[in-house]
Write a structure and sequence with these properties.
CATH class of the domain at 161-401: Alpha Beta
CATH superfamily of the domain at 161-401: paralog of FGE (formylglycine-generating enzyme)
Shape: globular
Helix content: 10-25%
Strand content: 5-15%
Structural class: alpha+beta
CATH topology of the domain at 161-401: paralog of FGE (formylglycine-generating enzyme)
Order of helices and strands: HEEHEEEEEEHHHEHEEEEEH
CATH architecture of the domain at 161-401: Alpha-Beta Complex
Amino acid sequence: MKFYRLMMLPVLVAAVCICGCGDDSEDVADGSSSVGSSGNAGGGGSFAPEAPQGRQAEKPKPVAAKPAPKVDAALAGADPKNVFALANNEGNFAIVDDGANTFLATVPEEGVDSSQFNAVPPAGGGTKSSSTRPKTKAPLPEGFVAVPDAGFSADGFPLRIRCEEDGSLMAFIPSSISQQGTNDGPENAMPQIAVFLDAYYIDVAEVTLGQYENFRVWWKEKKNRTLQRPINVSSPDDHPALGVSWADARNYTTWVKKQLPTEPEWEKAARGPNGFLHPWGNGRAGWSPARTPNQIDAVMSFRADISPYGVYDLAGNAREWCADMYSPTTYQEATRNGETVVRKWAGPKRAVVANHRVVKGNGPDWMAWDRSPVSMRAPGPNVGFRCVLRELQPDEEEKKKGTTGRRKTAF
């Protein structure tokens, strides 16, 4: 019996092999290969492969040429590696947060073209912020209220407050060292210096015609005198008030319990904690729609003209009054004693040009360091202003540390 089983084993193996060969022949019977007319696949008989069956290839249809993209005249002569622009008025990025967490597009490093850029979160404008109320809360002066859900700084200051008198929104600027001026520009803005500033608030937008008209009504009732109207009084109420004298701008700040900004306060709000050349960074402006110097629009019309602290129109729109008297050598005088950081800025003791104060903004190439003198009594047709709130009181623990102080020095 055992012998019989051994004899049957080769027969079974042979049968399996034959079946396997038949399966292979069925798998390839799709026209991809065939035997010759003699029927002997291994006998060397010649064969002519059949042409594959199928549709004939269609002729390609002509493609209509796409119209050439529109080129902004302002960018025509620019180096493409240094351009960050908007194509056909359509943004290639989106601002998803108008608050302290807005992201910045910074200039690419040398050797990297404009197809790449770095997204840098300013971390609440250089502060460690929280969306919830902190354990301690810094008190606000009477007439100012915190904006709900805007968050707080690490030392208890609301990141946004509102002035109840004129309804203006204000942005928190933390205490820190900031850059001012330039080492590569006109002599009156040289050299670049470092200035330490205590925390303060600044108006998110310029004072508008509507706000200024309310002030004029109050002034007439309170003082029984009439203030001169802005020169652009026929413009819509949401446009900046222009042609306002320095004295009348300061009178406005008294009404709202604020002050005019110093040069460093204005420039820090524009350049941010990283000392950018422009509010949006160090690259070219990407205006959409087009924007030209000295063009006046409704405040906050351009989403690109916003600083790391969330302050609008520090590049374009109105030129703005500062508190400082004008001197062409202000920055040289500020560091005449060899200070590496100027503290408790008070500006020049006197104006080199009589009755002239500093104006900032809307400078050449939108540079934030630009500064120029304007007569306090004869402002230009594009001069407006915004306000600050300084000398803030921190929470109780910070008070004990003695971190704040009043401006005492001048140079």
